[in-house]
Amino acid sequence: MALATMALPLAAQQPAARPAAPGAPVARPVAATRPQAMPGTAPAPARAARTRPRARPMTRAQVEETARTARGRRIIISLDERRLWSMDNGDTLYSAPIAVGKGTELSFGGARWNFTTPFGIRRVRSKETNPVWTPPDWHYVELARDSSWKLVRLERGRPITLPDRSRLEVRGERIGRVVAGRFEPIPADEEVIYGDTLFIPPLGTANRRVEGELGAFKLALGDGYMIHGTPHQDSIGQAATHGCIRMKDQDISYIYWTVPVGTAVYIY
Predict the structure, then answer these.
(1) Taking all residues of the chain, what is their mean pLDDT, rounded to a whole number?
(2) How far apart are CA 112 and CA 12, in angstroms?
(3) Does 3.30.590.10 match the CATH number of domain 60-131+221-267?
(4) Staple 185 to which of 54, 85, 120, 174, CB 3.0 to 4.6 Å?
(5) Which pTM does this prediction carry?
(6) How is the chain split into domains, by residue range?
């Protein structure tokens, strides 16, 4: 297959029946019949079903007020102060600085990403030690933009012929070059780059898994957002992430071991 590149732009009732008195006869259900229209008249229009109005999204101020007045174990995160508190009723159990979303946007090929940490109320859905990061597409778009590389998506079963006539292809979990009939795997911890082209690895391949990027612990909050560690300790206290909450090693360790799954997380 010939090398196909993509140009990179510069730049988510009816009420229940009352129980019958003891000893009272039990009423038998009667099949409802549709009333017949009088001859020569149009049938009555069907009554529209009532729908419950949707609750309005909470404002940041409302989330903050709810967080401060809530009871029990909870996590509170202030995006402006870039700080996290672990609370139990009115007691502060732990407080630590954090990194939050940097608030930028990125677009490519019809897709658009906003790297803001959204405010609202979430819950800890799961926890994991030594998590492995699967880079989303935006990682490769951002890397190609910053390095002025072309960007090409590599797909299983569709080898790409490189300028030197070797082939780039996927075999199982490995990506490699086929040179003179010999498959040479690319190291799993390296990006797939040839010349001025960065290739997006398929999901499930070794080059699409990055160990250590999320630190030693993570707490998943849903929709791809997490509280996790980081090797970039100097980013703590900054608006530096793509939407997640980063913490220093000792801080995420405390939060991981003391905050149970199901704990409410208030972000404002």
Answers:
(1) 86
(2) 8
(3) no
(4) 174
(5) 0.77
(6) 60-131+221-267, 137-208
